[in-house]
Each structure stands twice: as C-alpha cells, then as structure tokens.
Amino acid sequence: MNTRVRRGLIFIISFVFVLLIALTYRQAFSDEIASHPGNHRALIEEFSIERGKLLAADGTILARSEERNKIYHRVYPEGKVFASVTGYYSPTRGRFGLEASLSRWLAAKDYFRSFDDWRDSLMKRKRRGLDVKLTIRPDLQMKSWELLEGHRGAIVALDPRTGAVLALASRPSYDPNMIDEKWREIVSSDGLLLNRATQGLYPPGSTFKIVTTAGALDSGIATPDKMYDGAASLKVYGSQVTNFANKDVGKLSLAKAFAKSTNTIFAQVGLDLGAPRLVNAAKKFGLGKSPPFELPVAKSSIPSPGSMDKVMVAWTAVGQGKTLVTPLQMALISAAVANEGKVYRPFIVDTVGEENDLVYRSQRPRLWSDATTKETSKQITQMMEDVVLSGTGRAAALTGIMVAGKTGTAEFGKESAPHAWFIGFAPADDPKIAIAVFLEQGGLGGQAAAPIARQVFEKAVGSGIQ
Amino acid sequence: MITTARRNTELWGLILVSLIFYAGTAIVRATQAGFFSFLPINAVTLLFAFLIAHLFLRYGAREADSLLFPICAYLATLGLIELRSLENPSAETQQLWFLIGISLIVLIGFFIRRPANLSEYKYIAGTIGILLLLSPIFFGAVRGGSKLWLIVGGYSFQPAELAKIFLVVFLAAYLSEKKEVLATGRRRFIGLYWPHIRHFGPLILTWFLSLAILVLERDLGSSLIFFSLFLILLYIATGRVAYVFVGIFLFLLGATSAYYLFSHVAVRVNVWLNPLPADISGSSYQVAQSLFSLAAGGLSGVGLGAGLLGRQISMPAVHTDFIFSALGEELGLAGSAAVVLGYVFFLAKGFQISLSAKNDFSKLLAAGLTTVIGVQVFVIIGGIIKLIPMTGVTLPFISYGGSSMISNFIIVGLLMAISRQNHEYSS
C-alpha cells in the first residue's frame, strides 16, 4: 500500500506545484490584467495622496485638497476665475492645466529628498504633496476676469523684465469644483475648456505691424521717418489692400502710419521687405514655435515664405494673412519691445516647496529669443507711445503714466464683427507690465480692447506693481 | 533522547512562529497607525499558549510528530496577521479560535492514544458525517448563494467542515476492510472485472452524496473535495486506476450536467472562462478584484497593512474565501509562495505519517485527512488564480472561521495521534 500512498502524495503535490507555477504567472506577469479599465488601483492610490496647494503670488489659495472618506478631493476656492491657470483634477475626468503639468510636484509621488521621505514611502505613510507658488497676481487676474465679462476672450499680463506671468484670464470658463457634477454641460458648451490665453489661435490683425516694423527697421529698408503714400487702396497683382473705412490718409511717415495703423503703407513695407525677411522677423519674435511654458501652449504660426505670393505678403505684413497667434504670444511680442528686443521665457511657477525648504525656484530671466535690436525696440516703443497719445489706442491712455501700445482689428469674415486686440506695456519708459487683450468678435481694437487694457494697467499701477 | 530532540524542534519552530507573528503585527500597526510600537501583547499571549501546549505535548505525547504543529501554527499566524491588516473585526475572534484549535491538538494528542480504534466506529462516523453534510438542506441558512450554514442559538457553523473528518474516518475504515474484495472482481462489465455490487453500496452512496451537496446545497467546493478524497482513497486502498478513471468520468458527467442544469454553476464557469469582461461590477467582481490584487502584489507585495483589497476596494468574503488574494497583494509572490510551500510541507508530513503507519486503517486515515487539506488548498487557491472555476471553500488554517479552524486542528491532532501510535508500534 505504501507505493500507492507515495503515488497519491506525488499526485497531490504535483497539483500544488502546478498551482505555484500558475501563481507565479498571475503575480509576476500580470501587466495585461493590471491595465484592465475596471482596475481602479492606480486611481485610488493617487487620490489617497494629499496634493500640495496651488498658491497665487500673494499666498491666495487657488487649489487645495480636502479629505472626505479617505479620498482627497480638490477644492478651488476661486473657482472659474483661475480655471484657466489651475485646470482641474478629478477622479473620473483626470487632470488638466497646471494640475496636470505640475502633478509631479503636487503629488510628490516619486520625489525623495530625505531619509524621511524614503521611510514614509516604505511604510506607506500618507505623504503630502509639495505646495506650488505661482507668479499670478490675484488682483490682476480678478480684474482681468471682470473686464472680460460679457466677452469671449483672453487677457495675458507679463512682467517684461522676467517673463513672469501676472495674469492669465480666459472667458468663458468652467468651475473646476463642478467638473464631475457638470461634466456633460462643460464639454458640450462651446469652448469652455479652451484656454483662450494659451491655446486659442487667432489672426493678429494690426498688432502684427510691430513685427513688420521691427523687420523693416532691423533690415534697414526703412526708418521711422521714411515717407509712404497712404492711398485708400493699394493694387497688388490685381488684388487690393485697403485701409480701414477705405480712407486715403495722404503721405505719411512710417511712424505716423503706425499710429494710424494704415494698411496700404504697411503693405508697401511688407512688399519692400519681402516674404523671407518678414517671416524671419516673425520667427525671431517666437512665431513658428511654442514657448516652453508650464501650461500647454498652441504654436503660433506664419506661412512659410515659399508659400506666399505678393498679395499674401502684403496682407501678412498688415496682419490679415494666414498668420495665427495666441494671446500669450502677443503678450510676449509686447514684452519683447518693452525689454529692449529680448523675449524672456514666460513662466508661471515661482517656487515649489515650503518657504524655508524650497525644492525649486524659478530662474529669471531666461532668454528665449532675440527678437530685435535695442535701438529698434526704442524706436518702436516711441511709435507705440504715439498710438496711445494720438493714434488708434487713445482709449488706453492713463494720466500720469505713459502707456505704449498697438491696437488690432482682425477681420475674419464679411458677416461677423472683427476680433479686437490691444497689446502694450506700461510705464513706457520703465516697463513693468506687458499685456495682450483679445476679444473674440469684440469689434474695433481701439474701441473695445484698448479701454480694457487701460483698466488692467490702472489696476497694476494702483496696486503698486514693482 | 531522540524524542526529546524532536520536541525541541517543535519548541524552536513555535518560537519562530511567535516571532513571525510579532514582526507581522508590528508592521501592520506601524503601517496603519503610522508609528512603530514594541508592545507585543498579542505575540506574548500566543507564545504563552504555544509554550503550554508544547509542555503538554513534551510530557504527554513525546513521540508525536514535531513539525505538524509548527507548520499549521505558521499558517494560522499568517491568517491572524492578514486579518489584522484587513482591519477586520474578526481578527480577535480568530485568535480565540486559534487558541481553541491549539487546545484541540493537545486534547487529541493526550487522549486518543489508539487512533486505530476509531475504525470500530465507522458506521457511526459515516452516519454522523452524512447527517452533518445533509443537515443544511433541511435546516440551513443561505449565505452567499450557498446553503452551507447551520444556525444554532445565535451561533452559526458550517457542518461540511466537520463532516469531512467523519467521512474520512468512515471511508478509511470501510476501504481498509473491503480492499481485497474491491480490488478483485469476478463479473465482467465494460471490459473490466467488477466486484459484487453490494461491496460498492456505501461508495455509490458517497458519490450520490457529493452530487447531492452540489445540487441541493449549491456547494461546488465541498462536492469537489469529497469526490477527490473518495477517488484518492479508493485508489490507495485498491490500487485500481480504472476506478479512478471511471470516477473522473462520472464526476465530469455530473459537473457537465450541473453546468447545463443549474444557473449558479454556469455563472461560476462563465466567470472562470471570462473573468475580466468590460464591466466587472457583476458576477465576476470578486474574481476580477482578486486578480487585480495579485497583480498589484507583484513579486514583493505592497506591504503588510497597505493593501487596498477589503479596505479602499470593497470585497465580500475577503477574510474568508478570498484571504489568499489579500495576502498575495500585501506580501507579493514571495509571501503567497511561502504560504503554498507551507502547505507542501504539511502534505509531505501528512503522507509521511501515512507511510510509516502500521496498519491499513491508519494509513488510509492519515492519507485521507491530508488529502482533504491538500484538495481544499488546491480548490480555493486554484479558484482565486483562475486555474479552475471559483468555488467558495475556506483556505485551511488561514481563512477566518470557527468551524474551519476547529475541524482543521482536529485533523492536525489526529495526524499527530497517528504519528505517535506509529512510533509506539515501532519501539
């Protein structure tokens, strides 16, 4: 009988070994199973971390985590106003905006700096994410948000001396607190999730004349005093470039034409400059690439020189071609002029970590692109001052402080109202804030966008921007 | 001298198990409460219980096997640690059941000096076994889709757990007595010689019994365990492989009909074939979550007290049928393989006792008791890792449950009594 007992043992033990092999397979080679959509482990793990706060420059809390039933929920005390900055973080809808791009710090998941971090992670102790302090100024952001009331549009304000983003508002927007409850509504409504400040692409209109002018002055084909004929319309190969309201402005210097935003003159400048130099000037200001930034940025674009005929070159120089820009890009152009021709890398993250235990501090300034020369930028600044003093941008003027700016009115269809632009900086002699105001179908830049810009400048100066 | 050395092995084994318990509970507490505490009250209680049991065995049952007790204490300890890690309120109760289990080992080791004599009670044992098995059909309460529970005066217990011991006693006694007649037959039928039908009577009854459990109590697991036990003992007793094949054929026949006749069987099989449909919230929820947790465990596990199964992820029966999934998640393959290897030792030890037994009844009894544990382990772990369809049975020594703990420790006690008797015969 012992032989058979032995066989019985071998039989049972061999089954148990099959069990061991299958177990090894289940535990060690299980990536496919683990990635099944019904497996919420990764999510649960993520939502059991207390994420760090998002703070504005003055310490205002823009996003914090609140524990309910062992799961952390994200709360956005400022709601819609800062949604274009914070983005959202939801168990079911994922992450968006800075919540997505700064997750490495906010969740501090694989971030070990000390023995304590390592031990806490080993013991699965709850760890707090790192707080991130932004460069955003809540008073400017709030003001920008209020000024956009009733509009679809965006306002971007930068510190031209560093590239720090002071305000980044976009309307219409969504409430990041309601992302789960109102998801359907949010995605089905027109463009609520589109961050117009960084991802909306629009024709620049006459604000682009800054680029054309810079190209012309840098290449030496023109000086501010060079005279042009500002006829009501200019024939280019049987096609026509026309002035606003078909007005004949007579003979004007380039500087005067800039202040009055005369299309026919800038078309001539563009034709004199030629497609390659015009496109090159635009690229030096940053078109054709997206600036490195903490939020996703759409790439502003200009057609390649080879693809442009003369008509197109003329219209592009005026700002009405196929050029597409983001409000952030236009703010960078304005900042470049303010900053002696240098474009600094825009950034929104100031510091990461506790006040006396910083993990990261923004480097400032960091050159992104050499747009133009110091001399050219001085000349353009002069012209932009004239725009506000006596030209199309008078509505942006402030008493006691010199504002430099350029209006833009981008037509994109015969039927609808044009997009309104204003880009500029203040104070003109010592720039501390550069902005871009964009209003979708807002009307004339000088009438709709310039007054808004004035109020942003006013707020910035009033609250004593340094 | 040899026997003293043997009991020393047991002592060291039990001390080692106490240390494992201490380390395990300390890690669980450190993970959950966030601080490390050196206070080992529970571990000391357990060590104390071990020492008392050991002293009784040292002086009352010196010749009994010395590894079985530490091995099953090791397994039960892992269960205790895991229940604590699951923050399950049953953790304290389980420790009580464990202590009762230990005393059962001592009592049996002390008082059952001649387990061979149990064969005299074979028909009583058989009758009790059958009554226990069938009782839930008449008095049972349905839990988790199966009718396995008896509720007596506020306490509930699973009679199938105890029934298996009585049935092993009956089968071992009956087969050791009838093995010759069963092994050699005179009548020829479907190409084989068969003994007279009356010798088969009780065996056919057993076969019907396992089908009845399957059909009337919806207990797939117990049905499979009894049937395998029956076939293995039949083979060991008679040496006729043909019986095994006929038995397997009959079982497959029964199982296939059950698949087509009973929806609950069909559901289990379908979940087995497709455990991860796009929507796992239905019948495959437990098996899917179990597979996810094994995957999450990987090689080294997420750490004691840090698993999600049964806490952030709700999981019915995580402390009973699915405790192995929780162990696999927290301790990884390293830990789950350590559990399986614990059973391998247990099986080897049990069969070794069977081999050295001096009479056929004791051999069959030891082999049968060991087989019951072995098959149960295969059925539940195999179900959890999707090797076979999931059937709800407990993981011996580890799952929470009084009925299960008591019957399994009775099995250990009986095996130790047999080993002791072997030794007495040989000296």
Describe this structure in words.
The complex is a heterodimer of chains A (466) and B (427). Chain A has a domain at 199-462: 3-Layer(aba) Sandwich (Beta-lactamase), CATH 3.40.710.10. Chain A contains 18 helices and 19 strands. Chain A has helices at residues 2-28, 31-34, 41-47, 83-86, 98-101, 103-107, 115-122, 138-147, 183-188, 196-199, 209-219, 254-260, 263-273, 275-284, 310-318, 327-338, 374-390, 445-462; strands spanning 54-55, 61-68, 71-75, 89-90, 94-95, 132-134, 153-158, 165-171, 227-230, 233-236, 239-242, 250-253, 342-344, 349-354, 357-361, 367-370, 404-410, 419-426, 433-439. In chain A, the strands form 6 sheets. Chain A has a 6-stranded mixed sheet, with no helix packed on it. Chain A is elongated. The mean pLDDT of chain A is 88. Chain B has 427 residues and is mainly alpha-helical. Chain B has one domain (2-426). The chains are: A alpha+beta (466), B mainly alpha (427). Chains A and B meet through helix 1, helix 2 and helix 3 of A and helix 8, helix 11, helix 12 and helix 13 of B.
CATH topology of the domain at 199-462 in chain A: Beta-lactamase
N→C terminal distance of chain B? 13 Å
Structural class of chain A: alpha+beta
Dominant shape of chain B: globular
Give the largest interface: A-B, 41 and 56 residues
% residues in beta strands of chain B: under 5%
Computed over alpha carbons, the radius of gyration of chain A is 28 Å
Number of strands of chain A: 19
> In the CATH classification, which architecture of the domain at 199-462 in chain A applies?
3-Layer(aba) Sandwich
Number of domains of chain B: 1
Give the strand tally of chain B: 5
Helical content of chain B (DSSP H or I, runs of 4+): over 70%
- Helix tally of chain A equals 18
Q: Which whole number gives the mean pLDDT of chain B?
A: 85
**3D shape of chain A:** elongated
Structural class of chain B: mainly alpha
Uncertain segments of chain B of ≥5 residues (pLDDT<50)?
A: none
Number of helices of chain B: 14
Biggest pleated sheet of chain B? 3 strands, antiparallel
**CATH class of the domain at 199-462 in chain A, anyone?**
Alpha Beta
Q: What oligomeric assembly is this protein in?
A: heterodimer
